[in-house]
Amino acid sequence: MKFICLTLLIISGAADSRSAVGRPPVITVDGVDRPGGLHLQCESEGWYPEPDLEWLDSEGVRLSSETTETHRNTDRFSVKHTIIVYHSGKIHCRVKLKHHMLETLIISSSSMFNLWRTAAILFSVIVVISGFAGILLTVFLHKYRGI
Predict the structure, then answer these.
(1) Domain boundaries, the chain
(2) CATH code, residues 3-108
(3) What is the pLDDT of residues 32-43, one digit of tens each?
């Protein structure tokens, strides 16, 4: 599997003395499920107040998270969201707080998704051929014994 990660830091406007910009978000790959979904996790810590974390596709369309977690230690927040993606391309994890935004981008190759589709198709063909061979064998043995 091939992945490329990039992190962007965008700060606009004046800084607020009461806010704290956390660490850049980190995307980790937690695995691939049977249908070929890529499990991604994005987390960032050290924010005050609580930031917003969102997933976006390559078109900038917001994607819904599978799970979301927010933790608060003494005076900072950490956020963690997971998502399952069934297509290749760019996926963005963006953490926003007022005039601050940190974003990490992961690019996944399409060969990984094609591999799962190919395996599913091949398995289906083997099952159909095995079933057909079983039926032919049963018919042949039934006719052979009936003679």
Answers:
(1) 3-108, 110-147
(2) 2.60.40.10
(3) 887 778 899 999
For the ranges 16-20, 29-33, 85-89, which has the lowest average pLDDT?
16-20
Tallying the residues shown for the chain, one arrives at 147
The CA distance from 98 to 135, in Å, is 67
Which residue from 127, 61, 67 is spatially nearest to 94, judged by alpha carbons? 61
The three-state secondary structure class of 64 is coil
- Return the bridge partners of 47, or none: 77
Q: What is the largest CA-CA distance in the chain?
A: 95
> What is the C-alpha to C-alpha distance for residues 20 and 46, in angstroms, rounded to an integer?
7
Q: The pTM is what? A: 0.67
CB-based burial of residue 101 (10 Å sphere; 0-12 exposed, 13-18 middle, 19+ buried)?
A: middle
CA distance 86 to 114: 11
